[in-house]
UniProtKB/TrEMBL annotation:
Keywords: Glycosyltransferase, Magnesium, Pyrimidine biosynthesis, Transferase. It comes from Brumimicrobium glaciale. The keyword Magnesium applies. Homodimer. Belongs to the purine/pyrimidine phosphoribosyltransferase family. PyrE subfamily. Pathway: Pyrimidine metabolism; UMP biosynthesis via de novo pathway; UMP from orotate: step 1/2. Catalyzes the transfer of a ribosyl phosphate group from 5-phosphoribose 1-diphosphate to orotate, leading to the formation of orotidine monophosphate (OMP). Residues 65-165 form the Phosphoribosyltransferase domain. This is Orotate phosphoribosyltransferase. Transmembrane segments: none annotated. GO terms for biological process: 'de novo' UMP biosynthetic process; pyrimidine nucleobase biosynthetic process. Its cofactor is Mg(2+). The gene is pyrE. NCBIfam families: pyrE.
Amino acid sequence: MINDIDNAAKIAEYLLQIKAIKLQPNNPFTWSSGWKSPIYCDNRKTLSYPKIRTFIRQGFSKAVLEEYGKPDIIAGVATGGIAMGALVAQELGVPFVYVRSSAKGHGLENMIEGDYSTGSSVVVIEDLISTGGSSLKAVEALRSAGLNVKGVVAIFNYGFETATKAFEAANCQLNVLSNYDVMVDIALKQGTVTDKDMGSLREWRIAPDTWGK
């Protein structure tokens, strides 16, 4: 769910402007899963642009407060959600932790890094939602540690049905600052893609596993 459509459009503009999102419907990328994709998204590039990272940080903070109220803790998902999560925690004046993709193989073998108390409320910060697997693994780890996960907020979401169903099955609310549908509309207005490209771009979002085959 997007809680501010104007902010969503502006963030989509920024992501296209700095090429954090690249669109190549006629020369698809290949993901590690083997899927062919007309889009490549690396939202970590936003950290290199002070104006843009500030806008995104403020968007995150607003979304967190409006949707969940002020949480006890902000948690970032490794690795893409760590830096932005720390910025959001600073903005809100709350502690920060981050969740590893797997438990550390030495020392205390932590999966959650940072100090927290059982029963604390936490909002999870993520950079990108594709299938939702890594985000929900972090949610599961936080819940297993006795934390009350209020929801996940991400910069961008492809809008795959598999992700929507996964979050519903996990009983976890997902909010995003921008998404694929908003972004392709902005790309068309900018002339980044053509009317002819739009059919292919929308087909991919509906069936990404079979698109381009």
